Amino acid sequence: MLDLRDEHYPINLELVMGPIMQKFREIETCIECSAANLVQVAEVFYYAQKAVLHPTAPLFDQESQSLRPRCIRALKRIFVLCDHDMDSALNDDELNKFQIKCFNAPLSPSEIEDVKRVVNEKVPEGINHRGLTLKGFLYLHAVFIEKGRLETTWTVLREFGYNDELELQEEINLPALSERAPSQSVELTSAALDFLKGIFSLFDSNKDGALQDSELDELFSTAPENPWDEAPYDDAVERTEQGDLELSAFISQWALMTLLDPAQSLAYLRYLGYTGDPATAFRVTRKRSLDVKKKHTDRHVFQCFVFGPKNAGKSALLSSFVGRPFRNNYEITSNQCYTVNSVEQRGGIKKTLILHEIQEDNVKEFLSSKDSLAACDVAVFVYESSEEYSLKRASELLMDVAREGEESGYGVPCLLISAKCDSQSYLKEIKETKMISQAMKIGAPIHINVKENNMNGVFRKIVNAAEQCHLNIPETEQGINKKHYRQLVNCSLIVASVGAAVAITLTAYRTYAIKKAASS
Do domains 60-160 and 183-284 have the same CATH topology? Predict the structure, then answer.
C-alpha cells in the first residue's frame, strides 16, 4: 500500500517483486496502489478485469516462454480455416479477410508488408513467396502475448468459437437431437461421411489407404487432443498388421463416437474443418417401437449388447470382430469395452455393427435403469458349449433382459451364441437349448469356434436380427399372460362398444318408428 509506506525508506518495487515473479511465473501483473489517496486504483481494476477476460495461462507457458499445445492447436485450426486456397500460407487477400472477420478493419498494403518484414526478420520460415505460413502466424501471436496484448489473441480465438478452455463452446442447437427419445439413435449423414472420407484421403500422405499413428495425430492436430486415445475408442476398431487405420475402420470409429456422444462427434467434425450446418451432419433414427410396428428399420448402425457368464467367450467374440488373434488367457474387461466394424450383407450392402460387452457382475445394476435397453438394437447371450452352468447362467441373463424389456417397453431381439464349440458339448445342451428357444420364442443357438476362426456368419446373423426387429423378441410367462389379458380386455371393450352402438341404433329406430306412426 503506497499510503502505508515510510517515505524515509523508499522501496524499489521491481527489486522486491522481480525475484518473486520469476519464481512464480503464474503472477501476471504487480502494481502499487493506494485506495486512501486514490493512486492507481483504476489501474488495479483494469488489470484484474484483463486477467479474467484475457487470461495468460491457457495460452502461454511462462516457464518455457512458449505457446501452450492447446493454443497452438486452436490457432492452427484457425489458420487452416482461413487458408481458403489450401496452399499452407495466408496471402494478402486471406490476411485481409481474417483481419476483417476478427477486428472489423482491413490492413493496408503497407501494414501487411510491415507484418511480413517483422516475421521474416525473426522467423525466416514464417514467410514464403505465397504469404504468411503457420510458423509465422504462431510467431505473431506469441509476440502479442509476450508484449501483453493478450486481448488480440483472445479476440481471434473467441471470434472462431473458442471458450476459456480453448474448446469450441457452441452447443448443439438441433431439436431433433436434444428432444430425441431414448430409443432413437444418431448417425452420420452422407454429407458428413463424404467430408470424413476427404479428410482421410488428405492426411493419407503416402496414399497407402491407411493412416499411420503419425498421420492420425496430424489429422487431429487442429483439435484439443486425439479423442481416440482413451476408452472406449482406443481399442475399438480393426487395424492392419502394421497397426494402421484403414478407411472402413476410420469411418466405423466415427460411427461409434456419433452413437455414444453426438455432441463430441460434432465438435470434432468442426475441429477438422466441417463448416456446414450441424443439421446436415447428423440424422436421427425412428423410435425402435415404430420400427417394430412397421417390421422394418432404416438404421445403418446397430448396437449389440453382449451378455454372458464369466469365461464364456464374450471378449473373444469382440476381439474376433476386429480381426485380433485368439488368446487362451482370460482377462477381465470393463463396461467400456466396445468393438465396431462394418458387416457386409447380401447384395453387398454394408451396415455398421457395434458390440458392447456387459460384464456379468454389472448386469443387475445395468438393468436397474429404466432406459438400460433403449440404446440396444439386438442382444446376444454367449455361453460355453461344454459347461452346463454356463448355459444355465446365460438363460437366466436372457430371462432378466426379457423381463426388463417387457417392463420398460424396450424389448429387443435376442440370440443365443454357443461358443467354444471345439470342446465336447455336454449331452443335454441340444435338448435344453431347444426348450429355451421354444419357451422364449427365439431362434436356435448360433454355434461358433473363435479359436478355429469358425464364426458361422455370426455377425451377419446379428445384423439380420437387428434389421428384423419384430422377430426374436423373448417373452416371459408373465409377459405372455399380460398380453393375453390385454387382448381379452380389448376384445371386451370392442364387444361393449359394438353393443352400445347397436343399442343406440335400435333406440333411434324405435323413436323414428313411433314418430312416423303418430304422424300418419
Answer: yes
Spatial distance between the Cα atoms of 325 and 315, rounded to a whole number of angstroms: 12
Longest dimension (CA), the chain: 130
Q: Which amino acid is at 35?
A: A
Domain 288-475 of CATH type 3.40.50.1240: no
SS3 content of the chain, % helix, strand, coil (to 5): 50, 10, 40
CATH 1.10.238.10 fits 183-284, yes or no: yes
Q: Which amino acid is at 329?
A: N
Angle at 242 between CA 241 and CA 243, to 5 degrees: 90
Decide: 451 and 420 in contact? Cβ < 8 Å: yes
Residue 283: all three cell numbers together: 440424422
For 432-488, write each residue's pLDDT tens digit. 888 899 989 999 999 999 988 999 999 999 999 999 999 999 988 775 556 554 555
Locus of grid cell 437366466: 396
DSSP sequence for 400-439: HHHHHHHHHT----EEEEEE-TTSPPPTTHHHHHHHHHHH
According to DSSP, the β-strands at 378-384 and 301-307 are: parallel
pTM of the entire predicted model: 0.82
Contact between 340 and 253 (Cβ < 8 Å):
yes
